[in-house]
Every structure is written in structure tokens, then in C-alpha cells.
Amino acid sequence: MSLWQRPLKRLQAMSYDKLLLCETLRERIYVEHRTYRFRLSSLKGFVSLFLVGTVLSVALAACSGGGTGSNSASETPGASATPVAASKDNVELTLVSFAVTKAAHEAIIPKFVEQWKKDRNQTVVFRQSYGGSGSQTRAVIDGLEADVVHLALAGDTSKIEKAGLIQPGWEKEVPNNGIVSQSVAALVTRPGNPKGIKNWADLAKDGVKLITANPKTSGVAKWNFLALWDSVIKTGGDEAKATEFVTKVYKNVPILPKDAREATDTFAKQGQGDVLINYENEVILAQQKGEKVEYVVPDVNISIDNPIAVVDKNVDKHGNREVAEAFVKYLYTPGAQQEFVKLGFRPVDEIIAQTKEVTDKFPKVKTLGTVADLGGWEAIDQKFFADGGVFDKIQAQK
């Protein structure tokens, strides 16, 4: 997608965003702050906004030609598709996400549907698919026609981009580099914590059985692996020590479920293992459902960042780009972020993150690693999870 097409696309959706996010004065302040910061945060953003002024007159002229605007609209990806959805009473939107976001989306989607109906008098019908992030990524590349993808890691979204389904620069279309939900890793123990699990080092002890998903199929499991690895690096160890430690830990793993949901069921329902690594939000959700769950959040941890993106090729095919982009932006509003918080995700909104509700709810992490610390997802996948990488070598030693 060219440089001038992206700002035009944002302008097309702006009127809805203003209606959607002005529900309260606080949300209006929030949106204007985030939008201003986003648009001026880079040279490309500045140039894009400047170019809008140059191309806007051309675009307006093309769109006002006495009913002949359809020809010019077809030159901009998504522009010819939008009226197709807008002319219908119902519009369908397919959301493909990783397993542990299901509860959050089920709480947020009805609110978005209600708002869209109020503003546009159109009913949005959601089709939803949840599973391991790696498996979901492959399904989209192989033909699952997702309009929006919410995945466990940016590396998975990048794979869909490389397959030609998402235009480059997707992470710049929304705030926070496309990251819409966050969490950290938690260690779930048996009642009373009989193995005395307090930190990452305890997982390498003899007699401790650990349950974690397979990083070949699960984004959550990749985060688990990186949390283990980074726990050594962040405390002064080198890569040799990190390899030695993680190898010991995986020797204590009797089974590798395909995704986080299956790993939780293996631990909780089937009674396997002494400790489970999972998202903090998944543990909090279980407690909210009345389950008695004991867990520890290690104070050396990793920021688990989950991106959201519109699948450009599919929304243009389906004619629903406008509603897809509106839904993605809705997930950043204070109301949606508060729903994520209720279900155990740490907010990406800085204002909400500083509220007493959030600081009381989530244990403080002293040392928080990031993907950037480890070289980014492309380097991480090549080093750790590609065929013949560190993970395969560790598995070969079991």
C-alpha cells in the first residue's frame, strides 16, 4: 500500500472513530492524545499527513463526479469494497485469535456491535476462531479468511504479512505498534505448593514435573520458553548457562500440549504435572470462575505482547474494511481496555495502567524483558524455534 493511500484510509474511518470514542470526555481526551502522538511519532507519519493535503483535492474530485466515483474508488485498496458492506443490513467480520483471548473478546464484541448498530444502523455478525497462535497463523495463510487477526506474537502477524495478506506497516496503523493486549508469565502450582515453587530456577529441580505447551504450535509456549531463557540472561548468565538451564527444565516436561488451553486442561483437569507455565491473565480468569488456583508471578519476567491487525487482502475481498478497522481501533478505547483488565490482561493504556485497580490487581515485576532485548521475532524464530534451532536441540537431549 503506497504512502498516500494509508492516510486517506485513516481519514475514511475518522468520522466513525470520532463518534465511537467521544462517548465520554475522558475517552475523547484519550483518543486525541494517542492519535496526535501516533501521527507525529515518525518522519513517515509526518510526511503522510503532509501528503494528505496534496491528494485530498484529487480524491474529493474523483468521488464527486455525479455518480461516477466507483471507477476512481477501485484504485485504492479497500475503497471500492467498503460501500458493499455499508449497503447491507448485516455485515460479517471474521476474527481469528489465539486461545486465551476468547473470554475477553466475548465480553468486548457485544459492546462494539451495540455501538456500531447505534451509529450506523447496521448489525455486525462476528465469526470467531480460537486456537494456538502458530496454528491459527498457518490456517490464515492456508486459506482461513480472517478479517482481523489477534495473535500471541508479532512474529506470527509478520508471517501473514510475508504471505501477502497484510500490507507492510500494519503495526503503524494503530497505537502502541499494534500491541493491543499484554500479560506476563505465571507459575501455577498445586494447592499448598508442595514442591515449593517460587521462581524459574525451581523448575529445573529433580522431581518437578512441568506442563507447558509446544512452542512449535503455540505462541504462549514461545513466550514461556523465552521467559525461561531470559531469566538467566537478565540475572547475569550467558547463553551457555541459559542453554544448560532451559535444557534441564525441558527434561522435566513430560508432555507438550499444542496450545495454552490444552496445557491448562492437562494440568487442571487431567491432574498431570506439579507446575504449569501460563499467561497471568489465564490464571486470573480461572480464579474469577471460582477455581482455586495458586500461582506465583516471578519478579524477573517477560512482557508478553499481543498484536492486532486487519488482514488487508481479505477485507478488500469481503468489502468490510471499514468495520474491521473500526473494531481494531475500538479495542484500544478505555472501555475495551478495561474489559481486558477485568479478565486479567495488563492494559496497554498508560492512564489505565496507573489506576489503583490495576496496581492492586497485578503483582509488580522488577525486571521485565522484551522481545527487542532478544533481537526481535525474526531473529528469535531463526535462533530458537526454526527446524534445527535451540529448541529442537534441547528436545533431542531428552
Brief synopsis:
It contains 19 helices and 11 strands. It has 398 residues and is α/β, with parallel strands linked by helices.
Could you characterize the architecture of this molecule?
With 398 residues, the protein is an alpha/beta fold. The protein has two domains: 5-182 and 305-358, Periplasmic binding protein-like II (D-Maltodextrin-Binding Protein, domain 2); 185-302 and 368-396, D-Maltodextrin-Binding Protein, domain 2 (3-Layer(aba) Sandwich). The chain is 49% helix and 14% strand. It is built from 19 helices and eleven strands. The chain has helices at 5-21, 25-39, 43-63, 70-73, 82-86, 102-120, 133-141, 154-162, 219-233, 239-251, 260-268, 280-288, 312-318, 321-330, 334-342, 350-353, 356-361, 377-385, 390-396; strands spanning 90-98, 123-131, 148-150, 179-183, 185-189, 210-211, 275-279, 294-296, 300-302, 304-310, 367-369. The strands form three sheets. It has a five-stranded mixed beta sheet. α6 links the parallel β1 and β2 (123-131). α1 (5-21) packs across α14. The radius of gyration is 22 Å and the shape is globular. The termini are far apart.
Keywords for this entry:
disordered N terminus; alpha/beta; 2 domains; D-Maltodextrin-Binding Protein, domain 2; Sulfate ABC transporter substrate-binding protein; signal; 5-stranded mixed sheet; transport; 398 residues
- Strand % is 5-15%
Regarding quaternary structure, how should these chains be classified?
single chain
Mean pLDDT across every amino acid position: 82
CATH fold name of the largest domain, please?
D-Maltodextrin-Binding Protein, domain 2
Helix content bin:
40-55%
Uncertain segments:
1-82
In CATH terms, the superfamily of the largest domain is Periplasmic binding protein-like II
